[in-house]
């Protein structure tokens, strides 16, 4: 990892024009993802995390949403200056997206193999046979058991965790430099949640993919992230390495959160090992002590 940035969001503001007036969802946010890093974008519900990550892809999905200022720098260019056609060439090949609900991200009427092959052919312009080989590779990358047989499965025939692996496989099939993952494990039970988080760690270590991980859970941040940015009500309150923010939080809000969850402070043993090996340690958000700032 180095200090070059995979993504730099500068002074981003996003408004929603609702019948009840203008909602300032993101208010001048600065967010940096270092190359090869896993940045946790953390905050309670409604703090603007999802809106920020959707703004990066210019997928706010309603004409009522307006990006009113700022820059989103990716590969040396401001994504806010891009045409929709140019954005289509960035979404997928350069920036992948994994959302919370794998079921809604997959089409129920096609096999997962067909969906993977379609995405690979669309973005990589390869023939069907080559796309099938690449699809199988993608499923093996995310450690989907019996990948060859599973190519013929429909989404409903897979478990929630397996479906999320498929969604991650689709996002990674074009080897994007940056992966945006919005609460990718929130819908899963604790054991499966850990498996998917460990998969993200493996992908980061093996492919060097930079990851922006949206979560409301400091336990998730402690387990997988190198860096963290804390948001609240549209504002960025604090950013830094996970070690620094968890052990020496600067903002009173973060300090309050850390006081409330002292077991989340990185202990000496955990700090001494490379982050990719933290899976050897017990995952510290067991359900009974889940830290949920939402
Ligand atoms: P979270 O941090 O939970 O992901 P969001 O980014 O989804 O929060 O939302 C931030 C705020 O943006 C919400 O509290 C809400 O006020 C506003 N917002 C989000 N989506 C919409 C929408 N479609 N219409 C109006 N306001 C919205
Ligand atoms: Mg959200």
Secondary-structure topology with pairs:
Blueprint lengths: L4 E14 L2 E14 L3 E5 L6 H8 L8 E10 L2 E2 L5 H5 L6 E4 L3 H4 L6 H13 L3 H14 L5 H4 L9 H13 L5 E5 L7 H18 L2 E6 L2 H7 L2 E6 L2 E7 H6 L4 H9 L7 H5 L22
Helix pairs in contact: 4-5, 5-7, 7-8
Bound molecules: adenosine-5'-diphosphate and magnesium ion.
Keywords:
25% strand, six-stranded mixed beta sheet, single chain, 294 residues, alpha/beta, 12 helices, globular, Rossmann fold, binds adenosine-5'-diphosphate, binds magnesium ion
Number of helices: 12
Q: Structural class given helices, strands, pairing?
A: alpha/beta
In CATH, what is the class of the domain at 38-44 and 83-94 and 176-293?
A: Alpha Beta
Largest sheet, strands/sense/barrel: 6 strands, mixed
> What is the residue-mean pLDDT, rounded to a whole number?
88
Strand ordering within the main sheet? 6-7-8-3-9-10
Note the gap between the termini.
Answer: 31 Å
Low-confidence stretches: 276-294
The kinds of small molecule bound in this structure are: adenosine-5'-diphosphate, magnesium ion
Rounded to an integer, what's the Rg over CA atoms? 19 Å
CATH superfamily of the domain at 38-44 and 83-94 and 176-293: P-loop containing nucleotide triphosphate hydrolases
CATH-derived architecture of the domain at 38-44 and 83-94 and 176-293: 3-Layer(aba) Sandwich
Helices and strands, in N-to-C order? Answer: EEEHEEHEHHHHHEHEHEEHHH
Task: Report the principal-axis shape.
Answer: globular
Subcellular location: Cell membrane
Pfam family, one: ABC_tran
Family: Belongs to the ABC transporter superfamily.
Protein name: ABC transporter ATP-binding protein
């Amino acid at each position: 990892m180095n200090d070059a940035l995979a993504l730099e969001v500068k002074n981003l503001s996003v408004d929603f024009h609702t019948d009840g007036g203008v909602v300032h969802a993101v208010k001048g946010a600065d967010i940096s993802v270092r190359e090869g890093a896993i940045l946790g974008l953390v905050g309670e519900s409604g703090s603007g995390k999802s809106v920020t990550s959707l703004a990066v892809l210019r997928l706010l999905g309603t004409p009522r949403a307006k990006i009113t200022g700022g820059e989103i720098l990716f590969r040396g260019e401001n994504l806010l200056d891009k045409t929709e056609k140019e954005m289509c060439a960035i979404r997928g090949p350069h920036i992948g997206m994994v959302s919370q609900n794998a079921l809604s991200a997959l089409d129920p009427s096609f096999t997962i193999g067909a969906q993977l092959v379609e995405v690979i052919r669309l973005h990589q312009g390869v023939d069907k046979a080559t796309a099938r080989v690449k699809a199988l590779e993608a499923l093996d990358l995310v450690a989907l058991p019996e990948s060859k047989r599973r190519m013929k499965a429909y989404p409903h025939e897979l478990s929630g965790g397996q479906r999320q692996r498929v969604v991650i496989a689709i996002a990674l099939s074009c080897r994007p430099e940056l992966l945006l993952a919005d609460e990718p494990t929130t819908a899963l039970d604790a054991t499966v949640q850990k498996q998917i988080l460990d998969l993200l760690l493996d992908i980061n270590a093996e492919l060097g993919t930079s990851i922006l991980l949206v979560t409301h859970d400091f336990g998730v941040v402690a387990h997988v992230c190198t860096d963290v940015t804390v948001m609240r009500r549209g504002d960025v309150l604090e950013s830094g390495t996970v070690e620094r923010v968890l052990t020496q939080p600067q903002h009173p809000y973060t300090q309050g959160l850390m006081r409330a969850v002292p077991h989340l402070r990185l202990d000496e043993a955990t700090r001494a090992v490379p982050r990719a090996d933290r899976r050897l340690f017990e995952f510290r958000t067991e359900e009974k002590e889940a830290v949920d700032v939402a």
